[in-house]
Amino acid sequence: MKKEEYRFSYEVYDSVADLNEQDAWLVNEAREVTAAAYAPYSNFNVGAVAKLANGEIVAGTNQENASYPVGICAERVLLGSAASLYPNIAIDTIAISYDNTAGVSNHPISPCGMCRQALVEYEERVKQPIRLILSGLDGKVFIIANANALLPLSFGSVDLK
Ligand code: THU
After folding, report:
1. What range defines the domain where residue 130 resides?
2. pLDDT of residue 2
3. Is 123 a catalytic residue?
């Protein structure tokens, strides 16, 4: 038997004011686009904004449904839009924020398991890591260099060979 170790590191900033201008802009866009979420059941409005390798900006928000499992997260709405509008273009960075209208929005959230799987597939597809900037409406900001760091031992296309 041998033990393997998985190490994960990420950057922590006290607030958006500590980010560079480009990253701060993207975070503010993600915060603003939360207003376009449709989340009448959870009251948890999520916004995601991507900067693509070709310079284009694409947004996504969560879209819920009275049949709860039909709802889709902001991140996967964004990935579907990006892939449809700009096929095969890599995503450099995605900023993700949220407005919890029934609670607090002062700490970063991190993509759910299903979105992690979708992010990893996108990275593999365009052969470039996606950088994530996670935040609430205020408070700390986390930066993760590769979305795949959030999904160790992930299942992927290679496993289907
Ligand atoms: N949600 C997202 O859109 N992204 C996340 O990273 C976490 C959760 C949505 C799903 C649902 O509409 C609401 O937030 C509450 O879970």
Report:
1. 16-149
2. 97
3. no
